[in-house]
Task: structure prediction
Amino acid sequence: MAKTLNDLPPRAALVEVARDFHRRGWMSGTAGNLSVRTDDGHFWITASGRPKGRLEESDFLLVRIQDGEVVERAAPGNNPSAETAIHRVIYTRFPDAGACLHGHSVAGCLASGRARRAAKALRLPALEMLKGFGIWQQNPKVDLPLFENHLDVARIAKEIEVRFRKAKPPLPALMIRAHGPTVWGKGLQEAYNYFECLEFLFGYAARGAT
Result:
């Protein structure tokens, strides 16, 4: 039995994450996308329109980071989601990122909805769970980068790229308002842990506590 998600083959591990996130209400229907970087400048990512609760290892594409070209389809008819552009930005800006997870949750949307209009960040509650991101200060003030939700996903990806080019985010995560969070980590298990910690913080904030 695998000890961590990192011990599984990439697509098998992503299938496990997708089914887990679906059970927990973080990837309902076909929403969200998950990816893992390979060692040769590519990443495996979930194909567009696939139900995450029934994902299979054939529901993936291999994408080249440099230009976004699809170089392999695990099954004919697999097409990339528009949000592939966001994963490309993360892998380009952060060379140590080995996995990137994007989901949709009620708590995340509620928490981001409390932020003022046009806010660029969402203040996370100063809870013990922030230690999951390696933040050990007493009563830390941590601002999660917040982006507006445009119908044109390429525009979202560009805004992420521009902002992160200017300044590195305080933690490996971001939120798209009324849409969902994206997290990344050195490996899939680390990214999974970060996503789980962030959802805990969202759940707390969504209940009106700060």
